[in-house]
Hints:
Helices cover about 25% and strands about 30% of the residues.
Amino acid sequence: MGVPPRRDVARGSGGEGVPRIEPMKPTDWPDVRAIYARAIADRVATFETELPTWEQWDRAHLPACRFVARGPVEVLGWAALSPVSERACYTGVAEASVYVRKSARRCGVGHALLERLIAASEEGGIWTVQGSRFPENVASLRLQAACGFRVIGRRERIARLDGVWRDTVITERRSTTVVAVPPRG
């Protein structure tokens, strides 16, 4: 089974078929929120059932690791990192979120976003980026594998969505350039 050809949704936005990846600004929130709302409604990408406010979303994500993919007329997708813990020993571990507008999927937008997110994570001293995906979200799992993530396990019946117990597949990507350093204390 071959890889389907990339469509030209992003053509002209940042190069030949490549979206322009830029740091996310607060003014991008309406587009980011709309893309996230669609993912919440689809029930295949997140346990969330309600949209956060900008303030809630802003507090939950690392400031230096937030990006949008800009097309000629709209934001095509977004990616951000969230800390996995407030404990100092986990300072270099974060969880990745990547969401792509339905019309821009299978165009390389998610790949471009995740690659930029990985680069920013390493620039910021993150040594492990992890993911937690529903097993049926095959596209997300393939994207992660293409960007160097490996499956480390499956959490069975970890939480309920709409009253139904769901599993998640846990993935991680270890940096080859950032060395885990114990916190100063």
